[in-house]
C-alpha cells in the first residue's frame, strides 16, 4: 500500500477489524465460556453482574442500565430469583418499586463469570511483550476515541 492510498488503507482497516472481531467473538469467546460455566444466557449473566457490582438496584434502573425493556428485565430477574442468585424486596424509598439484591450464591457466581470475562485469552498472554505493549497502546487510543463519541455510558 502506498502512503495516502485510500482504497488500500480501507482494505487494511477492514482486515484488521475482521481479525479483531474474529479473535474476540470466535476464537476467544468469553461469552460462551461464561454461559457454559453459569448455565445461563449471556443477558442473564449481564443482569446478575450489574446487580452484583451496583448493589441493590430497582428494576427500572436495571432496565435503563442494560438498555432493555422492563418486562424483559422482570423475566430475567424472576429467573435469577428462582435460582437463588438474587432477592427482590420492597423499596423503602418507594413502595411501588422493588429492590433487587444479589445473594451470597449470586455473588459467587457473578465473581466467577467476571473472572472468566476479564481473563485474557492465552493467545494474547503469549504475545511477545513488545507486541502486547503496541496492541495495548493502539487499543487504548481506539477505545479513548470511541468513548468520546459514545451516546451511552462507557465502560462495562
TrEMBL record:
One term of GO molecular function: DNA-binding transcription factor activity
Domain HTH marR-type stretches: 1-144
InterPro entries, per the entry: HTH_MarR-typ, MarR/SlyA-like, WH-like_DNA-bd_sf, WH_DNA-bd_sf
Pfam families with a match to the protein in the record: MarR
GO BP: any one term: response to stress
Cross-referenced SMART domains: HTH_MARR
Top-level taxon in the UniProt lineage: Bacteria
Protein name as it appears in the record: MarR family transcriptional regulator
Annotated source species: Streptomyces boncukensis
Amino acid at each position: 500500500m502506498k502512503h495516502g492510498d485510500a482504497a488500500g488503507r480501507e482494505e487494511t482497516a477492514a482486515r484488521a477489524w475482521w481479525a479483531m472481531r474474529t479473535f474476540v467473538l470466535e476464537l476467544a469467546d468469553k461469552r460462551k465460556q461464561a454461559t457454559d460455566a453459569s448455565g445461563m444466557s449471556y443477558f442473564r449473566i449481564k443482569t446478575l453482574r450489574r446487580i452484583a457490582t451496583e448493589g441493590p438496584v430497582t428494576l427500572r434502573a436495571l432496565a435503563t442500565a442494560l438498555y432493555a425493556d422492563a418486562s424483559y428485565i422482570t423475566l430475567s430477574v424472576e429467573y435469577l430469583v428462582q435460582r437463588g442468585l438474587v432477592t427482590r424486596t420492597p423499596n423503602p424509598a418507594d413502595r411501588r418499586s422493588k429492590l433487587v439484591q444479589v445473594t451470597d450464591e449470586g455473588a459467587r457466581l457473578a465473581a466467577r463469570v467476571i473472572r472468566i470475562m476479564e481473563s485474557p485469552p492465552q493467545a494474547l498472554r503469549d504475545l511477545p511483550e513488545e507486541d502486547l505493549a503496541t496492541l495495548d497502546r493502539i487499543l487504548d487510543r481506539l477505545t479513548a476515541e470511541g468513548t468520546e463519541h459514545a451516546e451511552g455510558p462507557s465502560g462495562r
